[in-house]
Design goal:
- It comes from Blastococcus aggregatus.
- One of its GO terms (molecular function) is transmembrane transporter activity.
- This is Major Facilitator Superfamily protein.
- The protein is mainly alpha-helical and about 500 residues long.
- It has two domains: about 425 residues, Growth Hormone, Chain: A; about 55 residues.
- It has 21 helices and two strands.
- Strands 1-2 form a two-stranded antiparallel ribbon.
- Strand 1 and strand 2 form a beta hairpin.
- The protein starts with 15 loop residues before the first helix and ends with a strand.
Length: about 500
């Protein structure tokens, strides 16, 4: 159903600009809460008197909840309407954030992070709202601006932590920023999100959702806990094997259902495979960059021979904030480029910058300006990627699948972020200096090389997608002579010499 054919809005609708701004803040809630704990995991371990591996579950619990909840929430939005589901998610996230602020117990903090994991459903639902409400000429830019806030919000979360949790302050302080953003987003959602009659039909495939959640949880456990458990340990390999078996079984289950959670044909469609692969690799590159920059610039130069002795505040404000500011300024421009030239060409341009950024980080990081420039270039690539991905997904699926399709893409990015974190942590831990207990410089070269590999793979995926699109367009193009013959067929017998008899 096109925008012009939508059922009438019940009540006064917000204008396009106001709606995009409101949904941008809604999506910022997700990325902000996701990243603000990253710089203070060691402080959580110290202040709650738990091991660093136990504190790592603060990230893992959030990702596991996202894996289970995001597809269901996306499908519920398609079936029940986005507005009530978004409001319900924001209320749940607010409760979880209050619990995170109030608790002094790791189990309760993990419960809070599970509740906050519902926020991952906000992005696919926001894209669904935009697809229903915006005219086609504004849809591309609207989706790009809202999607770009995922990368910008991630930087904002790190900066907020640097500002509020510096000098060994209580790790709970940054959650106050998260609570404030969540409450403001909730107020805007209640006031501005339109009430539309639901047009989609069917139900939620709860069995499919449960099996998918179990398979993704096993996969995320393998990725996020492999370094702590040991990559060759029985639990790690068991999670990997279990993920392969469960996700394979889920695919078989979806093929046998009349109304599956996700159409198998949608997952196998080349038009959705490309953005999902790009989302995964973008997540890998983004978090590898974040962790490498944060640890590198905070390293004591006198002991390690590298680094800049930066505090947590300096690391986030000086080295990461410029990229976040550039992302905010770039988002509308990236949206217009996606609208005019398409998602795949935009990805090629954006990740050319990203490749240059990782080259700087890998081989030219000895000066502060080079690290800042690397952060700027990689943030440009992430912003452009997040601007292009929803457009590519929306073009590939039916309107009543917008929520669940973007939910799958969101999960791909989350898995990529977990994988990027795990790879960076593993490489750094594998290259510790026995004398100082700090990583050797080569560890950051290897992390940068991972980013280079991810950037190259994204460029290759975009080129392959463009080639396939060009081939498909040629196959659809009709023969000009056939068009002329059809046009005059009703007028009588046609002769190529004299025309119409």
């Amino acid at each position: 159903m096109s925008v012009r054919e939508q059922p009438p809005v019940q009540g006064r609708a917000a204008g396009p600009v106001l709606l995009v701004l409101a949904l941008s803040l809604v999506v910022t809630t997700l990325s902000l809460l996701q990243s603000l704990v990253v710089p203070v995991l060691d402080r959580i371990a110290a202040q709650l008197d738990v091991s660093p591996s136990a504190a790592g579950w603060v990230l893992t619990a959030n990702l596991l909840a996202a894996a289970v909840l995001t597809p269901v929430l996306g499908r519920l939005g398609d079936l029940k309407g986005e507005r009530p589901v978004i409001i319900g998610i924001l209320v749940t996230v607010a409760v979880g954030t209050v619990l995170a602020i109030a608790t002094e117990s790791l189990p309760l903090l993990l419960l809070a992070r599970v509740l906050q994991g519902a926020s991952y459903g906000l992005f696919p639902l926001s894209i669904s709202v935009l697809r229903r409400e915006l005219p086609e000429r504004r849809l591309g830019m609207g989706m790009s601006v809202v999607s770009s806030t995922l990368g910008v919000g991630g930087v904002a979360g790190l900066v907020a932590t640097g500002l509020l949790a510096g000098d060994d302050a209580d790790y709970r302080r940054p959650f106050w920023i998260g609570l404030g953003i969540t409450v403001v987003a909730l107020v805007l959602a209640v006031r501005l999100l339109p009430r539309r009659p639901v047009t989609a039909s069917g139900g939620v495939d709860w069995w499919g959702a449960a099996v998918l959640g179990a398979g993704l949880s096993l996969l995320l456990l393998f990725v996020s806990q492999g370094n702590a458990w040991g990559w060759s340990s029985a639990p790690t390999l068991g999670c990997l094997a279990g993920a392969v078996v469960v996700l394979s079984g889920w695919t078989v289950l979806q093929r046998r259902l009349a109304a599956p959670l996700v159409r198998p044909a949608m997952l196998a469609d080349r038009r959705t495979i490309v953005p999902n692969v790009v989302g995964l690799l973008t997540g890998v590159a983004m978090f590898a960059s974040f962790l490498a920059v944060l640890q590198y610039v905070q390293s004591p130069t006198g002991i390690t021979g590298y680094g800049f002795d930066a505090t947590v505040l300096e690391a986030t404000v000086v080295y990461l904030l410029p990229g976040g500011v550039v992302g905010i300024l770039l988002a509308p421009f990236a949206g217009s480029v996606v609208t005019r030239f398409g998602g795949l060409p935009t990805l090629l341009v954006g990740w050319t910058f990203g490749l240059a950024g990782f080259v700087l980080l890998t081989w030219f990081r000895s000066e502060p300006w080079a690290v800042i420039a690397a952060g700027l270039l990689t943030q440009v690539a992430v912003t452009v990627a997040y601007a292009a991905l929803p457009s590519l997904v929306v073009q590939a699926v039916h309107e009543d699948e917008t929520g669940v399709a973007n939910a799958i893409n969101s999960i791909a990015r989350s898995v990529g972020q977990a994988l990027g974190s795990a790879v960076a942590v593993t490489l750094i831990a594998a290259h510790l200096d026995p004398g100082t207990g700090l990583p050797r410089d080569v560890a950051f070269t290897l992390v940068g090389a991972v980013g280079i590999g991810a950037a190259v793979a994204i460029l290759v995926a975009a080129l392959l997608g463009l080639r396939a699109d060009s081939r498909a367009a040629r196959q659809r193009r009709p023969d000009p002579l056939t068009e002329v013959e059809e046009a005059v067929a009703g007028a009588g017998e046609w002769s190529p010499v004299s025309g119409i008899r």
